[in-house]
Amino acid sequence: MTIGSFGSRRQPMAEINVVPLVDVMLVLLVIFIITAPLLTHSVKIDLPKASSSPNIAKTDHIEFAIREDGSFFWNGKRIDPSSLPQRFMLEEKKQPQPELHIRADRLAHYELVAQVMSDAAKAGMTRIGFVTDPASHR
Fold first, then answer.
1. Nearest-angstrom CA–CA distance, 78 and 10
2. Which residues pair with 101 in a beta bridge?
3. Tens of pLDDT, residues 66-122
4. What Å distances lie between residue 95 and 12, 55, 125, CA to CA?
5. In DSSP terms, which residues pair with 129 in a beta bridge?
6. Rounded distance, CA 38 to CA 2, Å?
7. What total of structural domains would you count in the chain?
8. Where in the sequence is the domain holding 119, given as residue range(s)?
9. What's residue 130's pLDDT?
C-alpha cells in the first residue's frame, strides 16, 4: 500500500488493520497481570484443633494385626494368610456387620496392609479402620 497516491483511482484496502487487535491484547495482558497475584493467595482461616481420643467400640469388632515379619493375627490368634478371604466372607454375612480394626506394625510392608484391605472390601466389609497408638508430640 502506498501512503500517498497521485492517481484518482481508489482501490479497496487489502490489509488487515492490527492496531485495534494489539490494543485489545494489551488491555487483556494488563488485566491478567493485575488479577494473577490475587488468584494465588489463599484465604487465611483458623482451623479447629482436635485431639484424638480412643474409640470405644460399641459393636462387635475384629482385631486384625499385621507384624513386621508378615504374620497375621485374628483376634490375637495367628492365622494363615490364605484363609483371609473365607474369614471375611463369613464375617460379612453377620448382622450387624462387625468392624475390622487393622493394627499394623510400624515397619510392616504397606503391600500387606493394602492386600488385607482389598480382601476385606472384595468380601463386602464396609467398616474398616486403623488402630493407632496416640503418642505425644515429638
1. 99
2. 63, 129
3. 988 888 999 889 999 899 999 999 988 888 889 999 888 888 888 999 999 999 999
4. 87, 21, 12
5. 101
6. 48
7. 1
8. 61-130
9. 85
